[in-house]
Design brief:
By secondary structure, the protein is of the alpha/beta class. It contains seven helices and five strands. The chain has one domain: Rossmann fold (3-Layer(aba) Sandwich), CATH 3.40.50.620. Strands 3-2-1-4-5 form a five-stranded parallel sheet, sandwiched between helices.
Amino acid sequence: MKQNEKRAVVLLSGGLDSATALAIAADQGYSCHVLSFDYGQRSQTELNAARAVAARVGVSEHRVLRLHLEDFGGSALTDTDIDVPKDQAEGIPVTYVPARNTVFLSLALGWAEVLDADAIFIGVNAVDYSGYPDCRPEFIDAFERMANLATRRGVEGNPVRIEAPLMYMTKADIIRRGIELGVDYSLTLSCYQADSEGRACGRCDSCRLRAKGFEEAGVADPTRYI
């Protein structure tokens, strides 16, 4: 690693939002060290999307960690006994994976310490999202405070930043920004239950939010549907 380069750990699921967050980090001049998770999710093909996106951007490194969150279950994304809903529900939906972003950010923080990274990028959004409690600005702010109490950089007065550049953007705004930065959204996958060929269901909450975003942005939707 070059001594004076700006480094960031970027969380990449393979979806539209995280791909845009990666493009923003790269555009800001960061050397991007990308982290994805095989956490027992229904749609394993999203990891193929993450690999394709990372390769397209030309990141410094891309790691995929295996976690066994399906051992806990408690979410339609990790527990096959819970159906993915076709209609938007009130409150926190069953597609919420308990403490997922807390776990992901904690592991990203560990790698950031090893890399002496300046920032961690995450593509959470509080405008067009599904009601997940760990996508809110309050959570990101609280995690950043905790991170700088618990790390060498924080104690030594050189805090790591948790960057959530999409937090207050609509899905349409995110897509427009990504297009400006050259994101190829045909490589991304947002569906909660995509098939083995990476085709989206078109019915789940994530598919609906994505389709609405492309429509409102005035951009052709490149998603492959079943």
